Structures are given as structure tokens and as C-alpha cells.
Amino acid sequence: MGKHSRFNRREFLGAMAAAGGGMLAAGLVRPGEIRAAKPSGKPVKIGHQCVLSGVLGGYGQFMQMGATLAAEEINAAGGILGRPLEFEFRDSQVKPAVAVKNARYFVDKYGADFHAGIDSSGVALAVGKIMPQLKKILMVTHGATEKYNEQLVYKEGNKYLFRISVPVYQDGIASAMIAKDFPVKRWANIGPKYEYGYTSWQMFKDTLKKFRPDVEFVEESWAPFGTTDFGPHISKVMAANPEGIFTTEWAGEAVALVKQAKLFGVFGKIKEWVNPMGGAMDVLEGLGKDYPEGLWVSSRYWFLYPPTNINESFVQRFHKRWGRYPHYSSETSYSAYWALKQASELAGSTETEKVIKALEGMTMISPAGRRWFRKEDHQAVYEVPWGRTKADPKYPFRILGDLRAVPAELYYRHPPFDA
Amino acid sequence: MFEQLLFQGLVGLSLAMYLWLVSAGLTLIFGVLGVLNFAHGSLYMLGAYFGYSAVRVLGVSFWVGLAVAPLLVALVGGFIERFFIRRVYHIDVAYQLLLTFAFILIFADLVKWYWGPIYQSAPVPAGLSGALPILGRPFPVYNLFVMALGPLAALGLWLLLEKTWWGRTVRAAAGDREMAGAIGVNVPQLFTGVFMFGSWLGAVGGALGIPIRTVSPGMAEDYIIQAFAVAVIGGLGNLKGAFIGSVLIGLVNAYGHLYAPVFELAFMYILMAAILILRPQGIFGTSQ
Fold it and tell me: How many domains is chain A partitioned into structurally?
């Protein structure tokens, strides 16, 4: 993995210095290591919303775990600008109207300095559009639509919006850069029947076609949100004799799809299975030993990558605190809080305008590796590896083997986003 | 092409038989007790959670879970009928809906509190994990098992209701509960029994699904809507209708994905609307 490997403390400091110039000592505190003066004064508040009910309720809990750990560590390290960090969670119910109300509540009633979270693309766009009225920063930790950074931030100049998690480029473009080397000519798709599914499949096709003019896309089947029986989709797609299947089903639907595909003998017939969300901790744990080996999967952060001290120590502390390994939503929420701390301390203030300036172009060292916030579209740039599912005696679930990381610079789309 | 059509039909039939198993209890309870039991979705969910716990926590086999979990859920159903539903038989149907809907919310929160908000899943049992070649393609043994269980359950229900003393008293009480009471049938006790039996059926569906589905606090709503559609299409309270309704929904779903994927979400509702327009009482329902 060459250049993505370990940062030692010196490189870490160097990267910080190069990025931020004269940083405050507080900004350099390694998470969870140094006990600083007890924070005091008016608290810095983060309003956080995510899905906390229904079939996806677990995703909200993953965020709460990461956010809680971050806040505990930040407060133990002296808070933000010496002030204590507080946060509150609300359920977005994955409904744009509810989420917009939550955002208003956070700013008008709770007195939030920052807003964070959000699971779905639709919700991210709806809340994103009202942030200029509320004049607070929104740090998205999950919703992946490229319209958020390309349209809202870059084209419409909505400067309040940032995203710390990977955009759909990970799902649609990086996946094709992995798949281009497969001896597969006939691809099919089983995808979620909404924006995310359509966009990722389109990006996958467009990218793959550039590298491999010889591939064909033979069938597609779209499963609505909440599908429990994938039989009709599997049967339809397999009738076209694909050699490779691409899917962006995620969470419980990814689990049900893999189990049912296995029963239909799919993995014995096709050569490759590619799922950008198949490496998420909930899917790995949900499938356990039922997860066939050798499938290509990724995620938005995977707990054993990068193999840095910072990440290993984060995973250890997380496991000690919650008794489980961090989900990607836990890591992005955790890092979102540390990013807001670092930016506030660079700015010397929690005032929105000043923190926006500090975040633009800011580099941070996080468990997921080095992230930097692109000035033009406020998107954090970092890469998440791909790998083949494989058994490991140390874990009761599959981990990723044959790791391959496409450098973020190569698979992220770049301003002016015309191509 | 023709083979693809048949294969897709088989997949649709396996969906249908699963749906039938889940909705039979709902239909039975409505047919006999006259209560539209929203909580049936929760009992289905509890069946899945108990089955999951049996397999994952107690470490017993899927089959033991499938045998035991529905019995426990029947007890829960008996408790609900005895202490809550019994009180609303005589009042407006709106109160019955409110009460049973309240149970959906209560059970969703209880389940979230005890098992957590994260979905769970159980491994596929060895005996059901393979596939058999049908029409030259692998078809899951699990689906074949469900397809066999559906008609068996239908036959069992028919025998129970038509050929046994208990079934005859149930039908008598369903027809006229006061008259049944007057000739010495203990109607309240009988109703508790029917409710427990209906709960058991729903829970069998839940426990049966855990190897290939996920178990989550939101799953009650998933199936209750489909089960209601089945009941409406077939004729509320009519078991034969529920069986046919399930087959229709299963096939429409399977072929819909193939030929009209754009309207996928609407298939079930279009079918329901068509039946309501052409035959408002449902296929086997009797007009009142």
C-alpha cells in the first residue's frame, strides 16, 4: 500500500504544520492521550441528526457511538477553545420535512454552533438548502450524493455545507477502477430503486466503459427501499447470464440479498460480485460466516485501514467503550467533531464565517487517514480501500483481503465538474 | 424465454406461500373475532426475534427455534386478547384499530430496547442451504420448503375448521356468538384460543423467515401492509380468499419486476384497487 502506510508522529506533526501553519497546541493533541485543563465557560454545541427509528435505526446508533466517544475525548483534552463540547441527537426519520424541522430546532432553540449528521442524499439536499438561512455549518457524515458538493456548494456557492464522508464517487467510480481489471465482460446490476442506486450504477458504467470498451451491461433490476425478498430480482438478472454483478444494496438489504443470492447459486455461476457498501461493519457482522469469500467490497471507512497507530488506537478505544468495532458512520461522526474542534481552534472562534475559512483547505489526521477539505466544493478527500471478503480466525466475521486502494485524486471528480 | 417465464413464476409462488403463511392468522382472527388486528405484524416480528434468540443466543438449531418461538408468541397473543382486545369487541371498530396499532408501537420500542436498533440475522440451516436444478437453473431448497409448507398449512387449517369439533364450534361462534354462547359454548375462551392460534401462525411466518431475511424493529410494518392487501383482495376474513390473494400478489410481484419494473411499487396497490372496484367484497368475500 506504499504511500498510504503508517504516519508516525513526526509525519503527523509535519502534515499538520504544512496544512495549517501555526497551529495551537490544543489542536495537536492526540485523541484520548493527554488530560488537559477542565473545559469551562459557555459550551460549544453540535446539533446532530440521523435515522434513529425503523429498519435503519442502527445507523443512528453507530453515529451516536462515534459522536459520544469524540465528545468525551475532546472534553478530556480541554474542550474546544477551552469550552466544553455538548451535543444533542434527533431522529431525522429519513424524511426531508422532519430533518428541516430538526435543523431549525437545533439553531433556534438548542443554540447549536454546528450541525452534523444526515444519512440520506435527499435529506442532505433538503437541509443543505436551508443552511444559508440558518447561517450555520452543516457537516454531513453519511449522505453521499454528488449533488451536495458539486451543485449546492460549487455551482450555487452554498458555503455552509461540508462533508467528511466519501461521496458516491467511491461507489460508482472507484468500483469501476477496481472492476476494469476483472476478466468480466457481461455486467448486471441489482440496485436500490432511488437516486443513490441509479447514480452509482451510471457512474460505474460510464467509468468502466472508458477503460473497457468491450464490456456489456446486460440486465438491471431495481429493488424499492424495504425490499425483503430479492428472489424475483435475482431470477431476472441471472436469466441474462451475467459474469459480474454490481450492487449498491446496503445495510439489512445487502445482507438479505447476499443470503438469497447464495441460495440461488449465484456465486457459483458468476465470476465477480462488487458491492461498494458490502464492507460496512453492519453487513460484515450481519452476514457473519454466511458471507461468501472472494467478493469485492468497500465501505466509507473500514476499521483495519489505514494500518496507522492513530487508527489502531481509535479502534481499541472504541472497542473498549462500546464492545464492538467502529462502523463507518461511527468514524465519520467521530472525525466530524474533531474536525470542528480543529477548525474552531485554527479560527480562534466558533463564528460560522471564521470556521468556514478555517475548514476550507484544512487537513486533518483522522482514524480513516489524512483527510483534506477541498476548498472549491468543501468535500473531504480521503480514500477507502477495496478488498475481497476473506475469513480470519481473529474475527467472527469476514474481513477484507487483497486490499486495493485507488488514490482519491484519481477517482474523485474535480471542479468544475463538467465532464 | 418460456423457461424464464416458468422460473419467475416459481419464484413468485414461493413469495406467495410465504405471504400466505404470514397473513393466514390475520384473516382467521378477522373472520372469527371480527377484529382487524394490526398487532399481527408485531406478533410476526416477535416470532422472528424469538427464533433469532433461540438460534443466536441459546445456540439451538433453526428447527427448534421454529418449533418453540411461535408457541411463546401464542402465549403473548393470548395475553393481549384476554386483557385488552376482549374489552373492545363490542365497541366501534376505530377503537379496535387504535388499540391494535398501539401494540405495534409498543412492541417496536420493546424490541428496540431489548435487542437494540441494529438489525440482526441468523445463519441459514444446513438442510435448507442448497439448491436443486429446475429448468436448468439452481432453485433454492429453502424456497421449495416454503412452497410445500403453504399448501400443507392450508390443508391443515381446512381440516381443523371443517372436520374437528373445535373447528365447528369456532365456525358456530363466528356466525352468531350469542347463539353459540346460549347453547353452551364458552365463547370468550374460544376466542382467546383462536387469537392464540392466529398469533402462532403469524409467528411461524416470522421464525421461518430469519435465515434469509433480517430481523429488525421496523419489520412489523413491512408485512402487515402486504398481509392486509392479501385480506382485502381475497375478501376480509376468508381463508380461501387469502390463499388466492397471496398467490396473486406473489405472481404480480414476480412478473411485474420482469415486464413493468417502473411500476413495481404500485403493483400490489393496483391489484387491490382493481379488486375493490370490480368486486368490493373481495374475491371470496360475501357482500353484506
Answer: 2
Cell of A56: 435503519
Does any domain span residue A247?
yes
- Answer for the pair A61, A102: CB distance below 8 angstroms, yes or no: no
Mutate to test the interface with A, among B3, B110, B214, B264 (most CBs of A within 10 A): B214
pTM of the shown model? 0.92
Name every residue in B having a CB less than 8 A away from some CB of A.
Answer: 4, 7-8, 11-12, 14-15, 18, 112, 116-121, 123-124, 129, 131, 137-143, 209, 211-214, 216-219, 222, 253-254, 257-258, 261, 264-265
DSSP letter string over A292-361? PTT-EE--S--TT-S--HHHHHHHHHHHHHHSSPPPHHHHHHHHHHHHHHHHHHHHTS--HHHHHHHHTT
Give me the interface pTM, i.e. the ipTM: 0.93
Question: CATH number, domain at B78?
Answer: 1.10.3470
Output the tens digit of pLDDT for each of chain B's 288 residues.
Answer: 788 999 999 999 999 999 999 999 999 999 999 998 999 999 999 999 999 999 999 999 999 999 999 999 999 999 999 999 999 988 888 999 999 999 999 999 999 999 988 899 999 898 999 999 999 999 999 999 999 999 999 999 999 999 999 999 999 999 898 899 999 899 999 999 999 999 999 999 999 999 999 999 888 887 888 888 898 888 888 999 999 999 999 999 999 988 888 877 788 888 888 888 988 888 887 754
Q: Are residues A355 and A398 in the same domain?
A: no
Per-residue cell: B179: 347463539
The secondary structure element, H or E, covering residue A234 is helix A231-238
B7 contacts A235? CB cut-off 8 A: yes
Both A201 and A349 in one domain: the answer is no
**CA A386 – CA A170 distance, rounded (Å):** 10
Judgement on whether residues A359 and A400 belong to the same structural domain of the protein: no
Which secondary structure element, helix H or strand E, spans residue B104, and what is its range?
A: helix B93-115
Query: What CATH number has the domain bearing residue A277?
Result: 3.40.50.2300
Q: Is residue B3 assigned to a domain?
A: no
**Phi, psi angles (nearest 5°) of residue A242:** -75, 155
State whether residue A198 sits within 8 Å of chain B by CB: no
Same domain, A29 and A149: yes
The range of the structural domain enclosing residue A252 comes to: 169-299+387-411
Using the Cβ of A401 and the Cβ atoms of chain B, whether some distance falls under 8 Å is answered with no
Using CB atoms within 10 Å of the CB of residue A404, give its burial: 0 to 12 exposed, 13 to 18 middle, 19+ buried. middle
Pick from A235, A280, A282: nearest CA to A260: A235
Q: Answer yes or no: is A419 within a domain.
A: no
> In Å, how far from its chain's centre is CA A402?
21
* Euclidean distance between CA atoms B288 and B274, whole angstroms: 20
User: CA nearest A367: which of A392, A398, A402, A330?
Assistant: A330
Mutation pick from A51, A55, A285 vs chain B, by most beta carbons of B within 10 Å, is A55
CA distance to partner chain B, nearest, from residue A204 (Å): 21
A381 closest CA partner among A366, A398, A395: A366
A271 and A284 together in one domain = yes
CA-CA distance, B107 to B217, in Å (whole number)? 8
